[in-house]
Specification:
heterotrimer; A mainly alpha; B alpha/beta; C alpha/beta; B: alpha/beta; Rossmann fold; eight-stranded mixed sheet; four-stranded antiparallel sheet; 11 helices; disordered N terminus; C: alpha/beta; 33% helix; globular
């Protein structure tokens, strides 16, 4: 059993006895550790090990990997163009079109495979934008405080009071329903929770002694933010980034459902949006993309929860 | 007070640090949106000088401003006014690169070894940090230096590759000391550096600090609430109460002829058990707790709890006056009040 | 007269990740009579707080009592029904914690919190309970008690909160008070006040006190007896004056020697003399064999210590017992 795990067990009762033992010998003497010490049990690696122990987290990760794999390799396995009309509209699933056709006679399976690419890319890129804006605003706000904080908090509050879906609709309507616009719009309306989270983490960490010690060691603000505070604030931010992917995927679905999808790029949301009026005639055209969105969001949520359990020390026991 | 005249003699100046009228006020919340912010008078005009190679102790209870004084000297909390003359230079106005360079000679060890180390970085990297940031020594020589520093604080070289959670509290404090030693500072501020440790570990760390002082000619500012530790460890001691120095004296004088009623109270509370302690406590131990530093009393800060306070004490702030060699007391009645009799026969 | 609390051969273990039992406390025995105080002393990780929690039957999850009895006025706590145990807590035995802020409910005034305990355990009316609560605040020397009863914990200073904790703990006139490091978080002058208060209250109520502390120097005044714990084992026990004056176990001696005592009225030695030092640290859980747990740190250790398991507590004087093969050689 590694040192890390022992430490975790011993921690609640004996914070002082954890880890390497019996080498705090009299000053000046350098005695070797009494027991072999697991080298380099970094917190990140410990968290990964912990993550791999969680059944739901691993299941989510496998699901997510499969979805990504299909999105990458899919066009090779099923090369049909998702926008091409391959048969009659509303053809039920049969050997030619495994999952049937939609209201224009396009192949639903091709739509699923190619649309997955678009939807998951939108999700990942929008989540990335969310995190970049949110972390930058939150970090500056929480680290410097004072008027910088007041200003940035006012700005985030402005974004917070706007209903995000409506706001995104306005942006997409203004700049046109293209995939890039949709992605940016989603990112632009959903960064405030990440900013609040980052700000709170930075404010908590800012006054800890090790930050002051770094400052006493000659560290400037940039070094402190990027190299000292941010790495310590990262675990909850990673969790929120994971969950933001799920939210962005749902967002894309919602916008498309309301008719604001990019008609030139097949995505899961677009498939649902365009076929929603025919759900009674052709259930397959809506159900399969719906199920795909459900699976993708479920997968990222499971992964997010798994990471949360792994990085949250209070839940780490047992 | 002419005693605080600043000497700019870089050579031959026996004083490494000269703190002159240091004031640290914090703004705290306000009562109503339209009222003014309350001001916390954390440190209110503190002056003292620290001789090279000696240990200057600051003792006081929570809220006395002793830690704020230390962190203000480190420029870790912004001071409101005052001068901090360190190595012949006032470091208070410094910013940017000159401040970073000054920090080379000025390091700190904190109270809680658990929050003083970054949990996500290896011990060796944290000891190396000041070397990297202040460009000390050749890059290739720094790892060797880290191993050497670990040896000096009694840890094996392999410790460099471990993360803080793999160490015990005492070992972590050794790491913090190694980190403070890394840039070869002249002054180390020990802010309650042994208070959070078990007694056995505390003794190890105190012995280590003394050994390092002997070997390197270090100067310490040693902050503690423990009179026993302060007495044994320090050469000169300042007793702080509510943001001001109540009494300052060499360690040998302070516990033979204390002159301030607050010092008497501290001494009686910390005296070893026995009839002497009972007698002292009955006469000198004050009740209650220090008032809030938000609205400190107008006169002597201690007047509200002092059993010897008269009207003058409540109205007028006393000055820190010299009463003996290197012995200063801020008390209106220091001339008339007799100090405690420590020679009470043991029953 | 039977002792208020009698702990007999108590062992507590912790289940580790593999389901193995790791001993935390081993064969601990002590007792405390009415109006007396016993201090459990040791470094962190020695099992002091576990003992307190075992007596209150509040051991954290994963910790189990593997042997022994805990008799509270003759009644075995370990076999008592849960309902009975709830009645005992607060009524017969109560506890004062180290950090009063986290032990008080921030949403209620301190007066209400004391009155609540009285209302439940003493069958008083609300009005009587409130009146008595103020009386108890007066008893712990809180100035302007009527006014203070209406304030919330966060409006009080640390010392005041600790007084409130003590008022709550004594409100139901418990037979036994467990004080777990009650003054560690407080300033020295306040510490002295709290110790005086405990002593005075004990004189009035004849409550038995179990005082848990790491400060061997501070307890000699308050405690009648001392039990020194090391790595979950009691290694020395006896009257506090006797232990303070003539410690026999090398660990107890080390603890006393490494504490810088305040010397008043005498000039300080001009050169630094290294403090007595106990090298190393307490062995971690799971690293404790049958050997003497102090062996690795002991400067007296001899062949007999290395070849034999840790000896049981052996009487060396009236009431003074030591678990050390060399106890007789290490002259007082």
């Amino acid at each position: 059993m590694s040192t890390v795990e022992q430490t975790l067990i011993v921690a609640p009762t004996e914070p002082s006895d954890a880890g390497i033992t019996a080498n705090a010998a009299a000053p000046g003497t350098t005695s070797a550790p009494a027991q072999p010490v697991a080298k380099a049990a970094s917190p990140a690696r410990a968290a990964l090990r912990q993550f791999l122990r969680s059944p739901s987290g691993v299941a989510g990760a496998i699901m997510l990997l499969l979805l990504i794999l299909v999105a990458i390799l899919g066009p090779i396995l099923w090369p049909t163009d998702p926008l091409e009309i391959v048969g009659l509209p509303f053809a039920p699933p049969d050997p030619d079109a495994l999952l049937g056709t939609d209201y224009l006679g396009r192949d639903v399976l091709a739509g699923l495979i190619h649309g997955g690419r678009a939807t998951m890319t939108v999700g990942a890129v929008a989540a990335f934008i969310t995190i970049i804006i949110g972390v930058s605003v939150g970090a500056l706000s929480g680290f410097f405080g004072g008027w910088i904080d007041s200003l940035l908090v006012k700005i985030s509050e402005f974004f917070q009071v706007l209903p995000p879906l409506l706001f995104a609709m306005v942006l997409v309507t203004l700049f046109g329903p293209k995939l890039t616009t949709i992605t940016i719009a989603i990112g632009a309306v959903s960064w405030t929770p990440a900013a609040r989270l980052t700000r709170a983490e930075f404010m908590r960490l800012r006054d800890l002694d090790f930050i002051k010690a770094s400052r006493a060691a000659g560290a400037g603000n940039w070094h402190l933010i990027m190299r000292v505070v941010l790495p310590n604030a990262l675990p909850p931010i990673i969790v929120s980034a994971t969950l933001a992917i799920g939210v962005a995927i749902l967002f894309e679905g919602g916008l498309s459902f309301l008719g604001l999808g990019d008609p030139n790029t097949m995505s899961w949301g677009l498939m649902i949006g365009q076929n929603r009026n025919y759900v009674l005639d052709a259930w397959w055209a809506v159900t399969f993309p719906g199920a795909a969105i459900f699976l993708a969001v479920l997968a990222v949520s499971l992964v997010g929860d798994g990471i949360n359990d792994a990085v949250n020390p209070r839940l780490r026991r047992r | 007070m002419n005693f605080h005249a600043i000497t700019h003699l870089a050579d031959g100046n026996p004083y490494l640090l000269d703190v002159n009228d240091l004031v640290v006020h914090f703004r705290s919340g306000r009562q109503r949106p339209w009222t003014k912010h309350a001001v916390v008078h954390a440190v209110d005009g503190v002056s003292f000088r620290v001789r090279r190679g000696t240990t200057f102790g600051i003792v006081g209870e929570s809220g006395s401003g002793k830690s704020t004084t230390a962190q203000a000297i480190m420029r870790l909390v912004p001071a409101t006014s005052g001068q901090i003359v360190f190595r012949g230079e006032d470091i208070m106005p410094l910013t940017g690169e000159p401040l970073r360079q000054a920090r080379k000679h000025l390091q700190i060890v904190f109270q809680d070894p658990f929050s003083a180390l970054d949990p996500r970085r290896r011990a060796g990297d944290q000891i190396r940090e000041p070397l990297d940031l202040l460009h000390i020594g050749a890059r290739s020589a720094r790892d060797e230096r880290v191993r050497h520093l670990l040896g000096e604080v009694g840890l094996p070289p392999e410790a460099a590759d471990l993360f803080p959670h793999q160490f015990s509290g005492g070992q972590r404090q050794r790491l913090c000391i190694a980190r403070a030693l890394a840039p070869e500072p002249e002054l180390i501020v020990c802010d309650e550096a042994v208070s959070a440790l078990d007694v056995a570990i505390q003794a190890q760390i105190l012995n280590l600090l003394k050994k390092l002082q002997r070997e390197r000619g270090l100067t310490y500012i040693f902050i503690s609430h423990d009179l026993g530790v302060i007495q044994q460890f320090c050469d000169e001691i300042a007793v702080m109460y509510l943001g001001k120095i109540a009494e300052q004296a060499p360690a040998s004088t302070l516990f033979t002829e204390p002159r301030h009623p607050y010092t008497w109270s501290l001494v009686s509370a910390a005296a070893p058990p026995g009839p002497l302690r009972d007698a002292l406590k009955a006469k000198y131990l004050v009740n209650g707790e220090p008032p809030s530093p938000v609205n400190p009393p107008p006169g002597c800060r201690f007047a509200g709890r002092c059993p010897f306070a008269i009207d003058q004490c409540r109205a007028q702030q006393p000055h820190l006056d010299a009463v003996g060699p290197e012995h200063f007391v801020a008390c209106h009645r220091q001339k008339e009040l007799a100090g405690p009799d420590f020679t009470l026969p043991a029953l | 007269m039977a002792p208020v609390l009698s702990v007999e051969d108590l062992s507590v273990s912790m289940t580790d990740r593999d389901g193995k039992l790791v001993p935390v406390l081993e064969n601990l025995s002590f007792s405390v009579d009415r109006g007396r105080t016993i201090a459990l002393v040791g470094e962190s990780g020695c099992g002091k707080s576990m003992t307190a929690l075992a007596i209150m039957r509040l051991l954290p999850e994963g910790f189990v009592v593997t042997s022994g009895r805990i008799l509270l006025e003759g009644e075995d706590v370990l076999t008592a029904r849960n309902q009975r145990m709830r009645a005992l807590r607060g009524d017969t035995v109560s506890m004062v914690f180290q950090e009063p802020m986290t032990a008080l409910n921030p949403l209620y005034t301190v007066g209400d919190q004391i009155a609540e305990a009285l209302y439940h355990h003493r069958n008083l009316s609300r009005r009587e309970a409130n009146e008595q609560a103020v009386e108890f605040l007066k008893a712990v020397q809180i100035p302007a008690a009527e006014h203070r009863a209406k304030t919330y914990p966060h409006q009080m200073s640390g010392g005041m909160r600790q007084r409130v904790m003590i008022a709550m703990a004594i409100a139901c006139k418990p037979k036994l008070l467990i004080a777990d490091e009650p003054t560690t978080a407080l300033d020295v002058t306040v510490q002295a006040q709290i110790f005086d208060l405990l002593a005075k209250l004990q004189e009035e109520t004849e409550t038995a006190i179990v005082l848990i502390t790491h400060d061997l120097g501070a307890v000699a005044e308050l405690a009648d007896d001392i039990a020194v714990l090391y790595a979950g084992r009691c290694i020395e026990t006896g009257p506090s004056q006797e232990i303070a004056a003539r410690p026999r176990h090398p660990y107890t001696r080390g603890l006393l020697a490494c504490m810088p005592h305040l010397a008043i009225g005498q000039p300080k030695p001009s050169v630094w003399v290294d403090l007595g030092e106990i090298p190393g640290m307490v062995p971690g859980l799971g690293n404790r064999g049958p050997d003497c747990a102090f062996l690795a740190r002991c400067s007296y250790a001899s062949e007999v210590c290395r070849s034999q398991p840790q000896p049981p507590l052996g009487a060396i004087d009236t009431g003074h017992a030591v678990s050390c093969w060399l106890a007789r050689e290490i002259a007082a």
